[in-house]
Amino acid sequence: MHHHGYLWTGPKARFDQEALRRPPHPEPPPADSRPELVQRYREVAAAFPTSDLPPLETAYWLVKPRSLVRGTWPDPWAAAAWLSDRLTEYAPRFASPAQREVRHLTGLVTSAGERLASGSDVSLGFYLEHPSYLSLAVVMCDPSHELRSLPCPLER
Fold it and tell me: Is the pTM of the predicted complex or chain greater than 0.85?
């Protein structure tokens, strides 16, 4: 078992493109569906695995390009330390002054470390100045996990 870290920052309007942030339905639309529906399904099916946008479900970061992995750690607390470093780096740009407070950030990192140590994924998001958005995620990668059938990005 190990953990992969992901970071995305960009315009809030791009982050809001939810169709590109959700995996396509496992079954394509029926052949007799409206052509625009079939075309939209094809576009989403092709774009989702290659898009750098954060997925709506954190675990789906694992199907994204390997180049998006910002770090890999066998120890969950090392992954939490990476989150801490990123929060420290971006905190001056947080739109909300309350989210910049050290006690708040320390609590987020402690909670993240505990969740990672228990086998959960962690996803954090923050509005930045200039209507931008920051998404941070750490995803557990354990192919033997009964609920996780997604491939490890480092093994593809």
Answer: yes
- The tens digit of pLDDT for each residue in 129-143 reads 988 999 999 999 886
| DSSP labels, 19-80 | GGTSPPPSSPPPTTS-HHHHHHHHHHHHHTTT--SPPSSGGGGGGS-GGG--EEESSHHHHH
Q: Tell me the C-alpha distance between 82 and 128, whole Å.
A: 19
- Whether residue 73 contacts residue 79, with contact meaning beta carbons closer than 8 Å, is answered with yes
Of 55, 69, 61, 48, give the one whose Cα is nearest residue 154. Answer: 69
SS3 call for 132: strand
Rg for the chain (alpha carbons), in Å? 17
Structural contact between residues 58 and 141, judged by C-beta atoms closer than 8 angstroms: no
Cα separation, 99 vs 17, in Å, equals: 25
Residue 6 phi/psi, 5° resolution? -135, 145
Which residues contact residue 64 at a Cβ distance below 8 angstroms, ignoring those fewer than 6 apart?
6, 49, 50, 51, 52, 55, 153
